[in-house]
Design the sequence.
């Protein structure tokens, strides 16, 4: 694999900016983040690659995951808590 960066151009109507009350740079930055988040959430990319798509360091992307209700462990917080509860119950039955 090479480290070549590619560019994606997406056309969108100017009404989107009006509807969201955003400047073009703000909208495009958010769109990159949301694309990275979705690619990570669906299991298509690791946090590192999704962070690159989002245009930010991995540590910042991990923070964004939590802000958007996603887990860096690939599970929701509720699923992780359920796993811990199951492990506690199993350890008491031994």
Sequence:
């Amino acid at each position: 694999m090479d480290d070549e960066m590619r560019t994606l151009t997406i056309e969108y109507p100017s009404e989107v900016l009006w509807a969201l009350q955003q400047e073009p740079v703000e909208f495009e930055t958010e769109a990159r983040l949301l694309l990275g988040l979705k690619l990570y959430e669906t299991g298509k990319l690791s946090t590192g690659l999704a962070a690159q798509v989002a245009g930010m360091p991995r540590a910042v992307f991990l923070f964004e995951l939590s802000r958007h209700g996603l887990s860096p462990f690939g599970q929701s917080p509720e699923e992780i808590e359920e796993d811990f509860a199951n492990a506690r119950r199993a350890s008491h039955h031994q």
